[in-house]
Every structure is written in C-alpha cells, then in structure tokens.
Amino acid sequence: MKRRALITGITGQDGSYLAEFLLAKGYEVHGMVRRSSEEKFERIAHIRDRITLHQGDLLDQFSLASLLRIIDPQEVYNLAAQSFVPTSWNQPVLTGEFTALGVTKVLEAIRHTAPGARFYQASSSEMFGRVLETPQTEQTPFYPRSPYGVAKAYGHFITINYRESFGLFASSGILFNHESPRRGLEFVTRKVTHGAARIKLGLERGPVAKLGLGNLDARRDWGFAGDYVEAMWLMLQQEKADDYVIATNETHTVQELVEIAFARVGLDWKEHVTIDPAFIRPAEVDLLIGDPSKAKKKLGWQPKVGFRELVHMMVDADLERLKRLPEASL
Ligand code: NAP
Ligand code: G4F
C-alpha cells in the first residue's frame, strides 16, 4: 500500500519540489491549497494529475482536522507560511497567525485526529537573526530580527513542545536560504537572476536599464531547494524525531550573487544595479552560515548544488522562460 503524505504550502517553491520528490518515492501525495479567485498553481502544473489537492487554510482549525481525517496521512509536512521577511513588518499580526499559531493549529489537528502521523516543521535560519555564534548550529541561541523570525521561533519551540508533551513524532528543520528557478520573484536571488535576464533581453526601458536593490553586504548561506526537500523527508524516516540545521556551510554576499548573475549574461553589474532605500530593512540579518554536521552524520544528507552553479541555473532558466513568453506579457 502506498504511503500517504500531506503537504501544506504545496503551491510554494518547496512544496512543489517536495511533491515531486515524494511521488518519485512512490507516495500518494495530498496538498492543502487556499481558495483564490483565480487558481494559479504554476509550480505544480506538471504534476497536477498525480497529486490530490484539498481546500484548507492554516487559520481554519476545522479544515485542518477534517483533512487529516479524510487523508489519514503517515507524514505531514507543514511548509505553509507567510514567508517573505519584509511583508512581516507590514503585516506582523497576519504573519504571527499564519507562521506561528498556524503551526499549533496543525499540531492540534494531528494530536486529536491522526496522532500517529509524523510531522515536519519548516523552521528557518531567520531565527538566528543577529547571530550569537558562527557558524550556527542546532545549539546556537536565537535572536530573531523580524516579526517573521519571531513567528518562526514560536513554530520551532511549539513543535519541540508537542514532541515532549504529547509524544508526537514532530521534527523541525532549521533550513538556511534555499533557492531555485521556482523561487518567488520578490526574494533577492530570483529578483537578481530575473532582472539580469530581462536587462540582457532588452526588456527594461530607459537609456540604461536599472535594477534597484537594498543591502548588498548582507551574507547568506544559499543552497538549492531541490537538495533541501530530501533532508525534510530524511528527518521523518529516523527512529526518533529531532531538529536539524540544513545548510551548505558557505556564505556569500548579495553583491557576489549580483556579480555572478550579471557576468552570466555578459553584463557589468555596476552599470545596472542601483541602491534603492525602499529595500533596506528596519532591522537586518547581516550574516548567516550554517553548520550541517549533525544532518550529515545522522541523516547522511549533504548539498549537491554549489552557489555559482545555483545562480547560473536560475539565470539560464529565467532567460529561457522570458524568451518563451508572448510579447504582451513581458
Ligand atoms: P513560499 O514559496 O512562499 O510558499 C509558501 C506556501 O504557503 C504557499 O504554498 C502558500 O500558498 C502557502 N500559504 C501561505 N499562507 C497560507 C495559509 N494561511 N494557509 C494555507 N497555505 C498558506 O515558501 P517556500 O520558500 O516554499 O518555503 C516553504 C516553507 O519553508 C515556509 O514555511 C518558509 O517560511 C520556510 N522556509 C523557507 C526557506 C527558504 O529559503 N525558501 C528557508 C527556511 C524556511 P499560496 O500559493 O496560496 O500563497
Ligand atoms: O532573499 P531575501 O528576501 O531572503 P531572507 O530575508 O533571507 O529570507 C528568506 O530566507 C529565510 C531563511 O533564512 C527564510 F526563512 C525566509 O522565508 C526567506 O525564504 O533576502 C536576503 C538578503 C537580505 O539580507 C536582504 O536585505 O538580501 C538582502 N537584499 C538586498 N536587496 C534584498 C534586496 N532582499 C530582497 N528581497 N530584495 C532586495 O531588493
């Protein structure tokens, strides 16, 4: 009999890679999606006929419990969240409700409806914020710097609490930034690769096409999303639930990202990139670099795609996609 998995956030970057990964492993894959006036499930369009989608929302406790009752999954991956850091300053309450309390709602639904299901929580390196130790490990204390980071810290600890209080198999993956051609356009990697591709193809107006960015000195530990979803699955195959840092152990500045992306299309980034104060954050996370030793040792996990290869993959995919689009939509 096929194993059943439920993914919240299946329409997002990670949800789409995880769904592909689980299908390849022979799972019956179920996804929770929000109702919208226009269905935009682009990231999962290619697997739409192989997965089952159910309407539900992190805010609606009953929809979660009813999904669990209908599906009776062995594994639940909670990837749904308000995931964009700048939005969390504009909508701090909503971010708290989705990204923090939403986790408790899923855990409560599991506890009452499917207590045997294994649970994965999508925690984040944003919890380290103004880092208290470098590189960051599972033991590094948190100092979140945004309402998003604060909400994720709540989600992380409530996951541990339900494991310790009720014996649920609940694991938390502290994932550092991971990217792909499916990354949302507002995140810096995709903004840069998409921007460089548009400029290269002459799609930006003006005598010299510009791309406005914020802090070029921020450093991130960037990996490939396709590699990171394997780590999520591995966490739920262990004998005991636990928490793991998933990272590459390399850090790069936003400027390095820009240099590599523009060089890929044969352009000098200095002629195109401007600093736009609108993208400077009220409080910045200056440096992230994770130590994934525990995941390597216990899960046998390691990243496969390096930083330069990742940026090239994203630029190439954006060039291809833009070339294929009808002129009216450019
Ligand atoms: P993403 O592309 O922004 O996807 C977020 C998903 O959550 C979307 O499917 C979205 O649905 C869904 N969602 C948002 N609010 C919801 C609600 N109230 N009810 C139901 N679904 C809701 O994010 P991602 O990059 O794939 O990240 C996946 C998870 O990992 C998130 O929890 C994120 O915070 C966390 N994380 C990401 C990274 C990273 O670098 N990517 C690192 C650490 C942790 P719609 O399509 O309807 O908007
Ligand atoms: O790409 P970003 O928006 O990602 P951020 O804030 O690190 O958050 C992402 O990774 C987290 C894991 O650490 C996830 F939990 C979270 O859900 C999300 O996926 O920004 C990266 C860096 C920041 O330091 C930002 O200040 O890039 C800097 N940056 C500079 N110019 C910019 C820009 N970021 C964005 N989004 N847009 C800019 O124009």
UniProtKB/TrEMBL annotation:
Co-factor(s): NADP(+)
Protein name, entry field: GDP-mannose 4,6-dehydratase
Catalytic reaction annotation: GDP-alpha-D-mannose = GDP-4-dehydro-alpha-D-rhamnose + H2O
Keyword NADP (UniProt): yes
Domain of life: Bacteria
Role summary: Catalyzes the conversion of GDP-D-mannose to GDP-4-dehydro-6-deoxy-D-mannose.
Record has NADP as a keyword: yes
The protein's Enzyme Commission number: 4.2.1.47
Enzyme class: lyase
Originating organism: Pendulispora albinea
Gene3D superfamilies: NAD(P)-binding Rossmann-like Domain, UDP-galactose 4-epimerase, domain 1
Residue ranges of every copy of the NAD(P)-binding domain listed in the record: 6-314
Gene for this chain: gmd
Family from the record: Belongs to the NAD(P)-dependent epimerase/dehydratase family. GDP-mannose 4,6-dehydratase subfamily.
Keywords associated with the record: Lyase, NADP
GO molecular function: GDP-mannose 4,6-dehydratase activity
